[in-house]
Amino acid sequence: MEAKSCGGCFGGYLEVEMALTDTEVRKARPAEKPYRLSDAGSLYLWVTPSGGKLWRWAYKHEGKEKAHCLTQSAPKAKSWQN
Hints:
This protein has a single domain, classed as Double Stranded RNA Binding Domain (2-Layer Sandwich). It is 17% helix and 43% strand. It is built from two helices and six strands, in the order ββαββββα.
């Protein structure tokens, strides 16, 4: 992890995860089971066995971990536009 200055009222440093690069996202290949590639904060890329790539945001609600899907895979998104 890389520490970056956050300034603000605390004037300290925050631990910031390195964001996924475009190349890392394109190189993500399907596996036998779905898996996640962590991005900065609680955002991650969910890679499915069929090759789908979905951006999800992880959060907690009433003590339970939840995930909100932010986008669909490109083929599905394009088919919904027509």
